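Hmm, how's this folded?
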Amino acid sequence: MSVRKTVKTIQQTMWKDAGVDGDAQRLSQLCWMFFLKIIDDQDQQLDRAQSGYRSPIPKHLQWRAWAANPEGLTGTDLLRFINGDLFPALKNLPATGKWANRAHVVRSVFEDAYNYMKDGQLIRQIVNKISEVDFNDLAERKHFGDIYEQLLNDLQAAGNAGEFYTPRAVTAFMVDRVDPKPGEIVFDPSCGTGGFLTCSIRHMRDKYVRTEKDEATIQGSLRAIELKQLPHMLCTTNMLLHGIKDPSFVRHENTLARTYSSYTNADLVDIIVTNPPFGAVVQDGIESNFPQHLRTKETADLFMALIIRQLKPGGRAAVVLPDGILFGEGVKTRLKEHLMNECNLHTIVRLPSSVFKPYASIGTNLLFFEKGTPTQDIWYYEHRVPEGQKAYSMTRPIRLEHMQDCVTWWGGAGREGREESDVAWKVSVSDVKARGYNLDFKNPHAVTNDHGEPKDLLASLNDAEVKITTLRDQLKAILQEALLR
């Protein structure tokens, strides 16, 4: 059976269980199971490759011990083992010794994880199917990785869980434009399921990795933080599927909980690519971690302040931000002034509101900037939905090829030869300052629909109202006449 059919069978089996409610819970359940199988496959490979290797997971809790035998524990016995032995032990797994990082990865995944399933026999059917997948087989792992990406995509239909997912066409475009290279530290301070990380890994492997040393350099230069348990688990598993041997760099904590002033040169990074949470409010007291002039309750604003802080001189960033930050005042104005003084905000790509449907219909922008020199001019590029399509949707989402016109216009690494067009225009820093750092510049080349002269429109409206009144009176007369008959 193919990997795709295996995953489909597992999903269908899980739907029969009364304890699993909704797509987010199903994916969480699938994730911890796949995670344990992947870790166990890696452990066996490491045991063969490294003398003295020892798995941080106790032998009786390893996948091969309780899950691999199709005739092993099932029913009530399996359920009792998972809830009473497996989960408590992994939630409190000691992270010490030579393999502490690996133990920490396992513990961080299980700290807030749950076994939602209530039927031990259905669990046995599922683990038997998972056991069929060999994650040490590169081709099979890659195939499963593609399916896993689709599962993450499906989270868009899972209500609030959709916040964990940024369309892969957007992440791939942003990563391609900042062009991370082996040896550069790539950081996502709000990594969700790891889309920007996986795109960065693929980008570097496709363009720059030629030796084992190059690969080792990539493996050691990734950084990420995620606050919420489910996306953290999904991201960690995603890293394993993409061949990352030690995903302990994916930290399960609150990026904003650290004080702004505590960052030193050792914390600075070369590349930041991220879609920080917006439209949310931080918990009480978090804003006090920031300088007085940048304090706010809005998460996206605080993330932006940290992104500017954490970039090295010469560092590059690509960030997804809503329209509200562009025209917002108060702290937002001070933040934009700070951004343009500290960084060269060279490009803003404006996206239509349908890009993030169905779980958000909000105008968004991709901001590209480099740390170290102040902004002189900002280029805007308006991305439009393809001809023949009114909006992006679940069935017709944005695809990477839709961004090709922008790539062609971009002008390469040096951004040379850019020209104004019906979708591209340039704004000077003096124009921005004159508007009080309002960055919400509309396309000056857009053709405004001509609806006619106001006085003519008003006359037409009055004529329409007269006709409606006449028709209403005629209808009343007809109805009254019918009642009298």
